[in-house]
Amino acid sequence: MVMDGAPILTSVNGAASSGEAVGRVLGTQAASPLSFWIGIEPGQAVQLDEVVITRRDVPGHGPVLMAGVVTTVEARHEGASYDSDVFLIADGTLPAAVVECAEVRVTRVEPEIFVPPSPGAVVYRAQAADRDQALYFDVMDRRIPMGLGRDGQPMYVNFDFLDGTRGAHVSISGVSGVATKTSFATFLIYSIFNSGVLDAEAANTKALIFSVKGEDLLFLDHPNARLDEAATRMYGRLGLPARPFHSVHVFAPPRPGDPNGVPHVSARTQGISAFFWTLTEFCEEELLRFVFADADDERAQYSLLVGAVAARLQAWAAPAGDGGAVTITPPGGGGVTCRTFADLVDHIADQLTDDGTRATWAGAQVPLGTVNAFLRRLRGAVRALSPIVRGDLPPGRPHSISTSDAQVSIVDLHNLPERAQRFVVGVVLRGEFARKESSGTARPLLFVVLDELNKYAPREGDSPIKEILLDVAERGRSLGVILIGAQQTASEVERRIVANCAVRVAGRLDPAEASRPEYGWLPAISRERATIAKPGTMFVAQPEIPVPLAVTFPFPAWATRPSEAGPAPTGVARRTVDDPFAGLPGADDDIPPF
Amino acid sequence: MSIAIGQAGFTVDAWDPGYSAALAADALAELGPTSAELDLDVELLAADWRPVSPAPDTAPPGVMLIADGVRRIDARVWSNDAGAAPPSPGIAASYAAGIVRCTPGEGAPAELAAVEVRRSLFTASPYASDIKASAGTYRVETAADDSMEGLSLALQQRLTQLEVDLSVRCRDDDAGDGDLLIVDGPLRGRTHLPRTVGYIKTHHTAYLPAPQAGVVSALGPGQRTPVFLMGTSWRRHAWYLALPVRSAAPWAGIVRCEAGADMRPDEVVELADAITLALPSLAGVDYKDPRAPQNLVPIGGLEKLLRHRLGDPRLLYRSLRAAAGR
User: Fold this and answer.
1) Most CB within 10 Å of its CB: which of A368, A592, B109, B127?
2) Residue A286: left (phi > 0), alpha (psi -120 to 50), or beta?
3) Cβ–Cβ of B112/A95 closer than 8 Å?
4) Which domain of life is it from (chain B) (predicted)?
């Protein structure tokens, strides 16, 4: 209801401004340079996250622009004193006014003269240049679109805080299933690759995605058949093409029991290869440590023993043939050849239980109880690791995980037991990190997407994987390894990793989780809202902008499940398992030139 | 007690203006003579008087315009006359009139159709000039005499005039002929407005003789007495009606309505029926309003809005003091 019908469109605070007037700064609530309330003009509406601006002439400084984001919106009856008055007002007997007001958190004051806005000053909906200024988009030289804001305009993240120039790493939190953490991470990677900020580096910048949940990520290079007109337009508004990733390679563990080591994936046949480690590599690279990658393992007494046995394996193992099998020959002779992981474990067990050989493997004075605990744990790993630590497969097959084949490399872990997942993540991350370390340059960048970070880098305890992740978080910025970690509960992830993330993202949060101090970067109202956030809505905090931005990212242009997958891409059929020449040396990498 | 400063031409009395306001309110209540001229036979013969329920085919008014005004004395001032004459008293007052448009049954909200706020300085002094205070300008209105009652009466007259002006203007703008204007208080000075009813909440005089007065006591909720014609200093049609009330006190929930004297009896009866049908639904509730049920909900809401529009009394008082000191 209009109290006296007088419109307030006429500007009294002088400054002409772009955008439509939505209301005026309230004087009944104190206005401060950091936050103020506005009364909404009848007939207008503002919603949460909308960007508004107001100006004030400050003597000696000229016009000062104050821009902010709406964080609270309230409506009530003015002139009613009892709750039951609402019925009288609705019946049309009691005259009262509906008044709407909104709280604005100031994001930017330009120039930086921190004065409160004058009560009564007209507030405008920020558009175009004003909006860019309010959200600091005008000072972002290299910006990555990360979705649309409530007003349907693109929101950006500053690439300086992603590529290590001023910060790096992304932490994404949210409830499993509805928070769309992996989808957002994938979209972010897509946006980085396709927005043009990488220029010439775009081709060499790589992403390594660990896929732990089903076969969702195996179709990144297939167009999404469910992509509709509206979603395509959304990509258009973000300045991105709506198409799948163009270069994807999937690594999957070998199918158990298959003599040829065919990848254990049913839905994809092209651009896929099996990964495993040979027993030779296992011994040479001292991968035994990663078999004991639980936090429990580090607390146990046998960590010294793990190191000792790994060192013996490295020293005494020699390749037996070219299939990856090893012959372990302790000093004094008597070599034993192991062709499977189970063989190797059995051999180690024999050697350690034998009173005659135990000292040579474990050093003197290792209590028998410790040895038994070690062996119990090692034997427990046999079932999990047998498919991926092999000495029985035909030789010459490329089997290692490498990011050099395609722009996006996906490591499919969903078929592996948890211990094997840890082993793969630990070994692969160590390999990639060492490779970047030895190359000596941060560019081109490598983005690593790792879900369930709380499993690999828990707050409590130590493990070799946590060490590597901490290394990535603390030194990755200068080495060009950017971690995009996702977890259901940021409160359970090692604090130093979360603290090193420049960009923090939250999707739908569990109400109990949202109240933890790890989400202090979300203002109370956003925290409440995060508990009802819809899939596809994320709150993104970046260092430059004092409030997190709510963004909606578009429906994936790539398929996320077999039923959505459009026609497979053509011409990238490298290392196809159907290739009849698979397994022959030299016939794996090239397409015949005809 | 006065702050006498020569140049400004007036002085603000340091006493809280509320002290005299209470007196003025009492003085202004209808002080009708007890010997009113009555014609009880307009609708029913005096002997046949009984409570009347609205005729079953009565149509409730489509639109009701409800007018009210509020007044407040912001300060008592003393005008310093030229020469050696003693200063003459005056009152600086804010007053406002407003009209609420109710459309019962339509689901439309009750709207403030018109509102006007004025500030005036009432004085009998011929030398007084407008007071330009920082919070508002008080225009001089001349009162007939400089007694408190005289000044207060002048204020009441200006307020009534403002209500009439507003009603006329609102009617002109609306151009709807199905509407009914209810003015709070006696109809005096407004009898020329068509389809207008005066609504009197308080009774200072028992106008009706004993047998007919008994009919008033016998009224059930939503019933009225027959229409009668009464003449005091002016003539008008009148009837009593009973609003729903929980109290068993004598005359609880009884209000008197007035309509123009020159209306035809059948017109008045039709109007009385329409009003009797419409008013009970607007009656106030006792725990929300100490003057319930007579103080109708729209009037209570309007008064609250108008009082708010008068502005902050402390701020106005201070600005008057500041203006006097300049």
Assistant:
1) B109
2) left
3) yes
4) Bacteria
